[in-house]
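A.,

Following up on our hallway conversation. Structure tokens first:
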């Protein structure tokens, strides 16, 4: 596919090498290009220093040689330096004609020979940080391209100056959407532009699924619809440990989603964003199924909200903020606090819509009520459209920002609905559909389109919660199914387990690689000195509860035969109740908690 006319310049477009060669020596790692063997660098395994290749670098025989597909970056810990490389990838589609790859596996190369001279506490700290890097190796939803920057949406790309695409990819990229921005800093300092791969976390889904490319056939036209979601790195985190906004106004789980349409020589883009409610609030896990949700009273809350929406307005234009939370209970208190703050935010339309209230009993067609409220303003925002000659026919003048509590499940359903409305307008504007036609009239193609959004919701949810999205069958089929309800139940249980017993350490891993926590050899150990970790006693207490319940059940069955069993039953029940009371009273201490950074 041809390069966008507005981006064609006299300078050659910058490309990265597809394959690199990794040579492992006893004292160093050597990484060089397969296409240009004289281009590369080496890293000392003793001190982690980066050096350019010279004639003597590759003298001798390496202990191992392998092919890698990119360098994610480097990070310095207490003692050693560690290099993260891509060991396998898969081409999953294209972005504006350029191939896009998904990271399938990564490897951490350790340059920590000096570890043997470290103190016991330093070795303990280093081991914990290395555990975090091992978690990073399995990070889901990482995408990149060797030939183009994928962090910028179509409208922003179209406004780039001539010759911009000749710059190194990391210079072209929007740093807020580069997942490995912090890991790339040392490579940037060393001017290793050919080896810096900007990676986004999110999804790039060509219709109809992540590993298949299928066009939508609408009457006599073929249309390609692609979803590109870009996760902001400013408040990376897990579901329960990154809620709300920080003091700078950066919201958790903030994602820009671009729906790209290519048909009849036209290209069109429709943007939406999602993100946690931009207040200071928390929901700390405590072993209960639904932890207490509380709004943090802080004098800077108005500034936080103002900073968030000011940034959105500068980037996108007019803002419609849709709040899908419930209007009663603790959710209602959060929603009321949000509504109160939004009264003081100029030039932003706040729209409360109780999704569960309006769409209860699977009445998801009631989203039409929401659309009726915002349709006039939403359609004024338009979408971006380029014709066959590269001329701009429409520009998107604003964006709809949606949220629920997690900004996942209810948000997925709503964004899919709004994107469908925009797609109808785009197809009608181009002439593929008449003004009276819509995509839902084409059953098979409509199914492909809905599957696209369902897959996107699953991947975004996996990144934030570790499970697939709930309500996915509503997006996929337009209704709740028995299978979907069972799947949602399994996902809800998985979320409970991950939130309580795994996400603390996963949050530490994200804080480490994103630079929110910086390792300092001279600072106090984040691991703690006393060695007491209540979380480590959870298996013991769980065993006591299960054993106590089992023993109580067995002794109760014997009560009628032997009066003396009353005492045994009472003792077992008492021990079980006591352990359960201790767990309930100290639930937060028995959960997996992050150790590196605070909530804000």
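Then the amino acids I'd put at each of the 600 positions:
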């Amino acid at each position: 596919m041809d390069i966008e006319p507005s981006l064609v310049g006299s300078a050659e477009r910058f490309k990265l090498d597809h394959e690199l060669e990794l040579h492992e020596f006893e004292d160093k790692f050597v990484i060089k290009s397969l296409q240009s063997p004289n281009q590369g660098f080496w890293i000392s395994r003793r001190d982690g220093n980066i050096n350019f290749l010279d004639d003597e670098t590759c003298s001798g025989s390496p202990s191992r040689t392998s092919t890698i597909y990119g360098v994610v970056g480097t990070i310095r810990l207490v003692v050693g330096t560690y290099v993260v490389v891509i060991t396998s990838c898969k081409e999953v589609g294209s972005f504006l004609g350029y191939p896009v790859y998904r990271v399938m596996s990564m490897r951490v190369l350790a340059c920590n020979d000096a570890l043997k001279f470290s103190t016991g506490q330093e070795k303990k700290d280093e081991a914990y940080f290395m555990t975090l890097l091992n978690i990073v190796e399995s990070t889901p939803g990482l995408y990149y391209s060797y030939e183009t920057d994928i962090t910028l949406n179509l409208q922003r790309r179209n406004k780039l100056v001539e010759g911009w695409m000749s710059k190194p990819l990391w210079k072209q990229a929007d740093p807020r959407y580069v997942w490995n921005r912090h890991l790339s800093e040392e490579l940037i300092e060393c001017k290793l532009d050919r080896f810096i791969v900007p990676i986004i976390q999110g999804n790039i889904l060509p219709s109809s699924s992540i590993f298949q490319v299928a066009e939508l056939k609408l009457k006599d036209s073929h249309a390609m619809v692609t979803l590109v979601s870009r996760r902001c790195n400013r408040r990376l985190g897990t579901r329960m440990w990154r809620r709300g906004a920080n003091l700078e106004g950066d919201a958790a789980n903030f994602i820009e989603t671009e729906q790209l349409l290519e048909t009849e020589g036209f290209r069109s883009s429709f943007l939406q964003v999602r993100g946690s409610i931009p207040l200071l609030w928390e929901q700390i896990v405590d072993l209960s199924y639904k932890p207490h949700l509380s709004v943090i009273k802080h004098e800077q809350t108005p500034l936080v909200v103002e900073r968030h929406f000011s940034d959105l307005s500068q980037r996108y234009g007019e803002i419609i903020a849709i709040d899908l939370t419930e209007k009663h209970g603790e959710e209602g208190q959060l929603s009321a606090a949000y509504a109160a703050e939004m009264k003081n935010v100029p030039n932003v339309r706040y729209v409360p819509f109780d999704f569960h209230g309006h769409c209860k009993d699977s009445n998801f067609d009631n989203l039409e009520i929401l659309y009726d409220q915002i349709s006039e303003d939403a359609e004024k925002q338009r979408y971006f459209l380029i014709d066959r000659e590269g001329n701009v026919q429409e520009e998107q003048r604003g964006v709809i920002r949606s949220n629920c509590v997690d900004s996942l499940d209810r948000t997925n359903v709503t964004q899919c609905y709004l994107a469908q409305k925009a797609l109808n307008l785009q197809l009608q504007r181009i002439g593929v559909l008449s003004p009276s036609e819509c995509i839902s009239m084409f059953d098979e193609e409509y199914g492909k389109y809905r599957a696209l959004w369902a897959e996107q919701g699953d991947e975004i949810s996996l990144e934030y919660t570790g499970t697939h999205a709930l309500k996915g069958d509503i997006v996929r089929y337009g209704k709740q199914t028995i299978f979907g309800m069972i799947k949602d139940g399994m996902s809800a249980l998985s979320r409970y387990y991950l939130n309580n017993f795994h996400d603390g350490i996963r949050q530490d891993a994200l804080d480490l690689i994103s630079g929110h926590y910086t390792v300092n050899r001279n600072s106090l150990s984040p691991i703690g000195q006393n060695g007491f970790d209540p979380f480590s006693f959870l298996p013991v207490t769980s065993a006591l509860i299960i054993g106590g319940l089992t023993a109580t059940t067995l002794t109760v069955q014997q009560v009628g035969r032997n009066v003396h069993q009353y005492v045994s039953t009472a003792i077992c029940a008492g021990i079980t109740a006591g352990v359960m009371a201790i767990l309930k009273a100290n639930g937060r201490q028995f959960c997996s908690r992050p150790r590196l950074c605070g909530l804000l």
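Residues 241 and 599 are 7 Å apart (CA to CA). Curious whether your intuition agrees with the design.

B.
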